[in-house]
Amino acid sequence: MYGLVHRALQCFSQDTYGDVVWNKVVAEAGVQVHEYEAMLFYPDHHLDDVLLALSNHLDKTPAQVSEDVGAYLVTHQRMEAVRRLLRFGGTTFEEFVLSLDELHDRVKLALPELDLPELEVEAHSGSSFSVLVKSERHRFGAVLLGMLRAMADDFGTLVMLDLGMSTLGSDDVERATIELFETDFATGRGFGLVAEERSR
C-alpha cells in the first residue's frame, strides 16, 4: 500500500498524542518503520498492526480511531491541502456530498498508484444521502465518517451521520448515511480559491 496512507496515520498520532506515543505504538505493533515516506510502498499489514496498537493504547476501537483520523485530515493545519481538495467539491455541504462520486478520479489524476476506495453517492432526497464505500478494506468507511463530520462543521451544517453495511451485487460494502437538518446551523470556516499565504 502507498505510504501516503501510513503517513496519514503516523501524522495523526504524532500531532494528536506526541512522538512518545507514536514510538510506543510502533514498538507494540512490531514494525521496523518509525517514519513512513508518502511515495514509497509498505505492506498492508503495517497499517492494520499500527492501527490496532494505537487503538489499544488509546483504549478505543479501530473504527473510533479511524473516524478520528478522518476528522484530523480535514481539521489539522498540516492537512490543509486535503481540506482544500474537498472544499473544491462545492459551495455547500450538499454539493460537496454529491461531488464525492468524483473524488476517486480526482485523486487518481495526482496519484495514480494510490488505491483509495471508490465512492458512490445515492441521493434519496434533497436532505438525505448515502455513500457506498467500494473497498476490500472495511475501515475506510469510518475514515469517511470522520471526514464528513468535520466537513459538516466546516460548512456550518447540522447533520446526522451513521455507518453500516450494505450489499452491492455479491459484495458487502460500507454505507455512510447522511441526514441534513440545517444548512446554516453555524458559521462555517472561510474558504477561498487561493490559499491564504502563511505569515513568515
TrEMBL record:
GO terms for molecular function: guanylate cyclase activity; heme binding. InterPro entries: H-NOX_domain_sf, Heme_NO-bd, NO_sig/Golgi_transp_ligand-bd. One of its GO terms (cellular component) is guanylate cyclase complex, soluble. Pfam families: HNOB. Residues 2-158 form the Heme NO-binding domain. It comes from the Bacteria. One of its GO terms (biological process) is cGMP-mediated signaling. Coiled coil: none annotated. This is Haem-NO-binding. It comes from Litoreibacter ascidiaceicola.
